[in-house]
């Protein structure tokens, strides 16, 4: 478990570095990507394609392995079905993303950049997690 | 790029490669999806199931550490102009929506998309669409907070 936590910390640090370096911790830049009717900024698309490359190789490696390097088993989410819960959740998330230009990763990383606004967003994100647990669909 | 004066294609690609490498390490070594919403919910005890608590806490704590390292080495240019009321509403929607939709830009947008998961492709297309629609609507009504 200790080794898994060290891997997770390294992964989190790399993730945070990538977000900050690529300008994804800047809500104005993220909103500019979503602002297709305004001064569109394609940077986020470069970030996504850059990230998809190593992840594509990672899935190729996973298919050839029976277990991860430091854990007992792979814990992979289902790839189907596409149901109302998935789509309504993604729709709500996208709305919040557009309102603030922040999604969970950049908001957490931004705690080191703009602690005040990032903390407000992160605290209300936690309230959102809590609200979800009150829903009958949450189990 | 003269067409898009503010774009940072090189930093975007390098940062993206780091993000992909990070998620690849999490998957190949720990067998887990590096999804920021799921890891954070798990880290603060607001998700049942998922990664072990120590893994979730370590990943979550790593995010601001990584950002702080970049800030110290090369500096970070960020503009936080959104009002706190809007940040609160947005945070609430993001928190609820990512639990309901089982992921966000990282879990669905990067890890799931690279897997060509139909659920993740559908989720990513949906949150991109409502994100674009929300920004367009804000522009339409002249809201600038």
From TrEMBL, chain B:
Residue ranges of the TM segments:
12-34, 55-76, 82-100, 121-142
Q: Does the keyword Transport apply?
A: yes
Keywords carried by this UniProt record:
Cell inner membrane, Cell membrane, Membrane, Transmembrane, Transmembrane helix, Transport
Single GO cellular component annotation? plasma membrane
Q: Record's superkingdom?
A: Bacteria
Topology of the protein relative to the lipid bilayer: Multi-pass membrane protein
Q: What is its main location?
A: membrane
Q: Where in the cell is it found?
A: Cell inner membrane
Record has Lipid biosynthesis as a keyword:
no
Q: Which family does it belong to?
A: Belongs to the TsuA/YedE (TC 9.B.102) family.
Name of the protein in its database record: Sulphur transport domain-containing protein
